[in-house]
Design a protein that fits this description.
The protein folds into 2 domains: about 180 residues, Rossmann fold (3-Layer(aba) Sandwich); about 150 residues, Rossmann fold (3-Layer(aba) Sandwich). Helix content is about 45%, strand content about 15%. Helix 5 runs parallel beside helix 6, helix 10 packs antiparallel against helix 11 and helix 11 packs parallel to helix 12. The longest helix has about 30 residues. The protein is globular, with a radius of gyration of 23 Å. The N and C termini lie far apart (about 60 Å).
């Protein structure tokens, strides 16, 4: 049985670890905050569909020291929870990568599951050589496999596109091995293509007034900013054509501008509905995944909360209407489609006004 260690108690890391366990690997999952490695058996993976349910239930699992789990691993998957932003995020990742690979055996392979900027893998391969003494340029001991939520890439980056059939089997087959730089570019194109569609929708519908969006075009803030962390890494590392830089910088500015306008739209809705700020409760409905690798959504949530507080004072986190017993009118900003549907299906509670965080917002 192939021994695998997944470093990072993240949503993506747990989903990957579950798949590896179901595909026959002996999997240990490292919680970087407690420095322990627990055994994830297939029956546990089936019982707990995601890492949040596992953490909430706290089942008793077989454990071993992280040092031992890493040293024994044939494959080490790097899927950390990243909670910093900008330059601090890169420092945080580097520190966790050093910690993850410090006790790696020479015949082990690292699979880097977090996003990198252009040329970022070369930096981590150099760090791997410095920390663990493994020269990834001469072997198949380092691969790039950027995870995105529930999605797993079809391509695996490796030096010179070298294949590892055992790794492909563990990941479920159907994987293509491509050159490391090619895999970075493929990921960058996927991220930029996504944001070009999002920013186009934001700008086209910006002056649409109350014109409703077709259901197929209605993208909520939660989906708009998927990959924002990756986009920032690309921005910080890209040295190519000016047109691509314009697209990258314009996408980041477009998201920042949208968040500002969304906060301002609350004041517009209060005014147009004849409400008074002092008689209105403001709440954000956004069911965030607090265990994801990337922290971009939590950062945007805090940014939006701060902006709303400067306009209206206290901002609540909305879970359901139950528990909000007030004679004030409640105004809820629905930041995801799931949260919006949940609000609309909840028949009880006080008067409520809903703003959908989609490209067409009142200005």
């Amino acid at each position: 049985m192939v021994k695998v260690t997944v470093y990072g108690y993240s949503t993506e890391g747990y989903a990957l670890a579950s798949r590896l366990a179901e595909n026959g690997a002996e999997v240990h999952l490292v919680d970087e905050s407690t420095a322990s490695a627990v055994r994830l058996r297939p029956e546990i993976a089936k019982t707990y569909p995601n890492v949040a349910t596992l953490i909430d239930d706290e089942p008793l699992l077989d454990a071993k020291p992280v040092r031992t789990a890493v040293a024994e691993a044939r494959y080490l998957f790097f899927t950390p929870r990243i909670r910093k932003a900008g330059a601090e995020a890169r420092t945080e990742i580097s520190l966790k990568f050093k910690d993850a690979t410090a006790h790696l055996s020479e015949d082990s392979t690292v699979v880097y599951g977090a996003p990198v900027g252009m040329g970022g893998n070369a930096e981590y391969m150099e760090l791997l050589k410095h920390v663990a003494g493994i020269d990834a340029t001469e072997t198949t001991s380092y691969h790039y496999y950027p995870l995105e939520g529930d999605r797993q890439p079809d391509a695996i980056g490796s030096v010179g596109g070298r294949e590892d059939t055992e790794l492909a089997r563990l990941l479920g087959g159907g994987k293509e091995f491509v050159d490391m730089e090619a895999s970075e570019r493929m990921h960058a194109v996927r991220v930029l293509s996504k944001f070009s569609r999002v920013i186009s929708a934001i700008e086209i519908y910006r002056n649409s007034g109350r014109s409703p969006m077709p259901p197929g075009d209605e993208v909520f803030l939660d989906s708009m900013i998927d990959g924002l962390f990756d986009l920032q890494l690309i921005k910080d590392s890209y040295q190519g054509a000016r047109a691509a830089q314009y697209l990258i910088n314009g996408s980041i500015r477009g998201i920042e501008g949208y968040v500002r306008r969304l906060a301002d739209s609350v004041r517009t809705v209060i005014r147009e509905n004849g409400l008074k700020v002092s008689r209105t409760e403001i709440a954000l409905a956004w069911s965030l995944d607090r265990h994801g690798m990337r922290s971009d959504k939590m950062n945007i949530f805090q940014n939006l909360t701060d902006r709303l507080q400067s306009h209206t004072g206290t901002v609540l986190e909305y879970a359901s209407r139950q528990g909000f017993y007030s004679d004030k009118t409640m105004l809820v900003v629905a930041c995801s489609r799931a949260d919006y549907n949940s609000i609309k299906q909840d028949p009880d509670g006080p008067d409520i006004v809903v703003i959908k965080a989609v490209p067409a917002i009142p200005e």
